[in-house]
Structure to design on (137 residues):
């Protein structure tokens, strides 16, 4: 059975935020998006332990705190470390990819340039996570 997901999107680029919202809307998915402009803002949201997201989409290149710094903090928290975190980035840097998997991500998606390809990648990821048995604390 597919579930309605609560997704925490950590992204500083408003065009990318609009693109993800547009994708979910065009696919007519019921998922709820919570937006954070950077890792610090996301951590403030995650302090509300009774309102945790089902999954996190995380950009790597952000001001204040980059994605890898955020990920390290997240994965060192006894409750938050179980939230599946998918990197959604333009970085195809192998060093970034390996570091993220080492820290403990659930996936790494490189944002394609063409919108149609972006929609396909997001559709696949969201279909998987809406059917996956998520750990609830």
């Amino acid at each position: 059975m597919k579930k309605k997901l609560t997704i925490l999107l950590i992204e500083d680029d408003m065009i990318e935020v609009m693109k993800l919202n547009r994708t979910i809307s065009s696919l007519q998915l019921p998922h709820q998006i919570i937006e954070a402009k950077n890792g610090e803002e996301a951590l403030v949201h995650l302090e509300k332990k009774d309102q945790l997201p089902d999954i996190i989409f995380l950009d790597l290149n952000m001001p204040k705190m980059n994605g890898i710094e955020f990920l390290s903090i997240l994965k060192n928290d006894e409750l938050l470390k179980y939230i599946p975190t998918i990197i959604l980035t333009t970085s195809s840097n192998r060093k970034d990819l390996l570091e993220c998997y080492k820290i403990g991500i659930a996936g790494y998606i490189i944002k394609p340039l063409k919108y149609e390809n972006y929609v396909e990648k997001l559709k696949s990821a969201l279909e998987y996570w809406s059917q996956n048995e998520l750990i609830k604390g």
